[in-house]
């Protein structure tokens, strides 16, 4: 068995991994959630090997990772629901179950002909699939019924010699952040069904997610942040998240997570009284990695709750911060954005990459969080 | 030492003139009619128009504090005349609203340079701590404050327990992780359909209400540390009354106010009591806008009595809320320690200044 460190000589590792998979072999590979077992899902021998390894009965589906909706369409039949999910939620920690087109080897699709497809929000897998020009299996690297693994060691140690011999290549990315395996959504029928709960759960309406705890609201913040970064941003504009919703629905929790994502280590307390708090951002926050031209240096946590009218908003001179040379380096979370007045709100949408987030109370521990992204260029 | 103190950390533009730690004058924009005094137009809708208000407020503080004759004189003349008699300028550097702080900081720099005065930069929270050292022009009240002293300071913008080893030696031992105590009261007031600021309204209603009417949580009660959290309390209050018809809320305003206020105050006291047990201070102090509440003062006095300690709180009501007097006194002690701003030109506001 060969072992490669993906954090070193990245391109070569991706290239080598693609070659190994193409030749029908099995690779342990890092994903956005857990370590996965990657084989070519169209290769009969490779799929048999994978099923043998996992002690899995044929008939239970094995999900595959693709790079985009176009590639997915080669393997599954789209429905109105699945189109919506692909357009709004992917890439992200979701597996979408659709009716398969039988283009994969036996054992990939489930007994009922369904197939789970992922577009992982992960550079490694994305680049691997691009390199391959086709899908890979994205099943979590564990034996059936066991828990998934976040490091190569925890996966490797308990394996029998026989099982170890079945892995042809190990691609090591170190310890992965603990994210749950993806949320599995069945999009075949008109009513969406959640088959397995991951970190993010979709809500009843389009572009909504369900949070059952402060932690999950934080995960949603992270998901939306990554999503915005992937969009074609106008890099000359600041990025503003407008957070609307009743008291106690999670607006400050969201802002606090955003600060953490940006690398701010200070305590983030309520800005209601002072209206906004400014935070300087340490250089190179990890999540802006993909966009090297987007160096964010300042985070503004603003709460317009106390403002009674648009004049009061104008007094705090928020837009003046946009005029400076550094406006593109600004990220702001604005709670109660409706209190700035309609004119100012329209102006904000023009001046910034604006993401509107709406927090709704469902029950004591549940919030439905809707979002829409306005990127006017 | 004559001090001109300037405070613009959030809503109010404030200035004061002091002789050492004695207040000679105290001016807050929201409490005086600048229009009639100095003319000029500051629209009523503008709450935080510090830029428009700073000059008249400073002029008024100098005029009153130094007994200057203002008749027929322009603002600039009054300020010029007053500044001749000032030795030190003290200004709030932070924490606070950046844009508001800038106005005060820039004006203090301008005056310090123009009139060649020494400048001290004061932390707003230190101002609240030292509000218990503020005296009137007859050097009253006399207080013997022994260290270490433990301070509870709570307002709309902050909630902290601070251990003082001496003037200038502070350690934050507990603080809110989310909302401030005063903010919680303000928000509860708004939820009940009442005005802003909410503290005084809630206090008035609570007097006639039943604190046991509604059971509310005491967030962080069982956490081992001395930190506070008021966000969850606000949320649970909100969802308890959310679906009530307005008539039902109105019928129970007093009881609701009493229950909520009681939850906030008990939370404040649980941690403060714990802090007293841990740090065994010689004196207790309390300050900040929330201390304007007489019920809280009563409970704090009882806490002090139970522990056989003396407790001091600001001697006049406008010393609790944001004001320039406390900034002047904090500035006075800094000046005594020789802590002047070295490079005045480069002084910049610090919106999230730590104490």
Which secondary-structure class do the elements of chain B indicate?
alpha/beta
Fraction of helical residues of chain A? 25-40%
The CATH topology of the largest domain in chain B is what? Nucleotidyltransferase, domain 5
- What number of domains of chain B? 2
Largest sheet of chain A: 8 strands, mixed
Overall shape of chain B: it is globular
Strand content of chain A: 15-25%
What is the multimeric organization of the chains shown? heterodimer
Radius of gyration of chain B equals 21 Å
Order of strands, main sheet of chain B, comes to 3-2-1-4-5
Put simply, the count of helices of chain B is: 12
**Mind telling me which CATH architecture of the largest domain in chain A this is?**
Alpha-Beta Complex
Order of helices and strands of chain B: EEEHHHEHEHEEEHHHHHEHEH
Q: Termini of chain B, distance in Å?
A: 25 Å
Main-sheet strand order of chain A equals 13-14-20-19-15-18-17-16
Question: What is the first-to-last residue Cα distance of chain A?
Answer: 50 Å
Number of domains of chain A: 2
């Amino acid at each position: 068995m060969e072992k490669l460190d993906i954090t070193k000589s990245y391109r070569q590792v991706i290239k080598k991994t693609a070659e190994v998979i193409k030749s029908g072999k099995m690779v342990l590979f890092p994903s956005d959630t857990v370590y996965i077992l990657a084989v070519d899902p169209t290769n009969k021998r490779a799929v048999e090997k994978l099923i043998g390894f996992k002690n899995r009965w044929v008939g239970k589906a094995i999900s595959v990772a693709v790079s985009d909706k176009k590639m997915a369409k080669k393997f599954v039949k789209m429905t109105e629901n699945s189109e919506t999910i692909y357009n709004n939620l992917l890439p992200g920690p979701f597996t979408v179950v659709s009716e398969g087109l039988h283009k994969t080897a036996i054992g990939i699709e489930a007994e009922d002909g369904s197939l789970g497809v992922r577009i992982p929000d992960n550079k490694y897998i994305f680049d691997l699939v691009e390199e391959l020009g086709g899908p890979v299996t994205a099943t979590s690297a564990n034996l059936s019924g066991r828990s998934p693994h976040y490091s190569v060691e925890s996966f490797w140690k308990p394996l029998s010699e026989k099982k170890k011999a079945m892995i042809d290549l190990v691609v090591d990315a170190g310890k992965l952040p603990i994210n749950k395996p993806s949320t599995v959504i069945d999009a075949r029928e008109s009513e969406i069904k959640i088959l397995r709960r991951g970190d993010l759960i979709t809500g009843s309406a389009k572009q909504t997610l369900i949070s059952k705890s402060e932690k999950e609201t934080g995960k949603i913040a992270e998901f939306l942040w990554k999503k915005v970064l992937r969009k074609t941003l106008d890099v000359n504009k600041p990025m503003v998240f407008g957070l609307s919703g009743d008291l106690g629905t999670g607006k400050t929790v969201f802002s606090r997570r955003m600060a953490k994502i940006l690398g701010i280590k200070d305590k983030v307390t309520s800005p209601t009284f002072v209206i906004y708090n400014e935070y300087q951002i340490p250089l190179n926050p990890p999540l802006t990695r993909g966009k090297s031209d987007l160096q964010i240096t300042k985070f503004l946590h603003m709460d317009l709750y106390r403002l009674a009218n648009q004049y009061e908003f104008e007094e705090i001179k928020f837009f003046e911060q946009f005029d400076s040379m550094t406006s593109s380096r600004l990220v702001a979370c604005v709670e109660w954005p409706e209190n700035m007045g309609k004119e100012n709100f329209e102006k904000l949408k023009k001046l910034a990459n604006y993401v509107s987030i709406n927090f709704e109370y469902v029950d004591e521990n549940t919030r439905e969080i809707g979002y829409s992204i306005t990127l006017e260029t | 030492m004559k001090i001109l103190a300037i405070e613009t950390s959030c809503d109010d533009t404030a200035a004061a003139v002091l002789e050492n730690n004695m207040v000679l004058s105290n001016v807050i924009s929201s409490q005086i009619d600048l229009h009639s005094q100095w003319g000029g137009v500051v629209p009523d809708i503008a709450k935080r128009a510090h830029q428009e208000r700073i000059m008249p407020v400073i002029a008024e503080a100098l005029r009153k504090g130094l007994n200057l004759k203002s008749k027929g004189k322009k603002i600039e003349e009054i300020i010029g005349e007053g500044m001749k008699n000032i030795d030190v300028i003290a200004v709030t550097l932070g924490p606070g609203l950046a844009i508001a702080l800038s106005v005060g900081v820039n004006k203090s720099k301008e005056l310090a340079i123009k009139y060649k005065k020494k400048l001290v930069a004061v932390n707003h929270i230190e101002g609240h701590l030292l509000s218990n050292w503020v005296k009137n022009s007859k050097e009253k009240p006399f207080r013997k404050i022994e260290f270490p002293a433990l301070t509870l300071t709570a307002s709309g913008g902050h909630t902290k327990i601070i251990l003082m080893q001496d003037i200038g030696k502070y350690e934050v031992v507990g603080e809110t992780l989310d909302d401030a105590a005063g903010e919680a009261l303000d928000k509860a007031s708004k939820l009940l359909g009442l005005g802003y600021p909410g503290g005084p309204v809630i206090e008035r209603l609570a007097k006639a209400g039943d604190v046991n009417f509604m059971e509310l949580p005491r967030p962080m009660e069982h956490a081992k540390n001395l930190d506070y959290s008021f966000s969850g309390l606000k949320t649970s209050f909100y969802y308890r009354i959310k679906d009530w018809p307005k008539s039902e809320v109105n019928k129970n305003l007093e009881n609701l106010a009493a229950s909520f206020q009681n939850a906030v105050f008990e939370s404040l006291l649980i941690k403060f009591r714990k802090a007293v047990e841990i740090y065994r201070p010689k004196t207790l102090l309390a300050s900040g806008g929330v201390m304007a509440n007489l019920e809280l003062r009563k409970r704090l006095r009882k806490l002090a009595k139970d522990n056989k300690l003396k407790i001091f709180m600001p001697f006049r009501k406008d010393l609790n809320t944001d004001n320039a007097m406390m900034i002047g006194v904090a500035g006075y002690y800094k000046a005594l320690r020789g802590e002047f701003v070295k490079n005045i030109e480069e002084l910049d506001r610090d919106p999230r200044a730590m104490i």
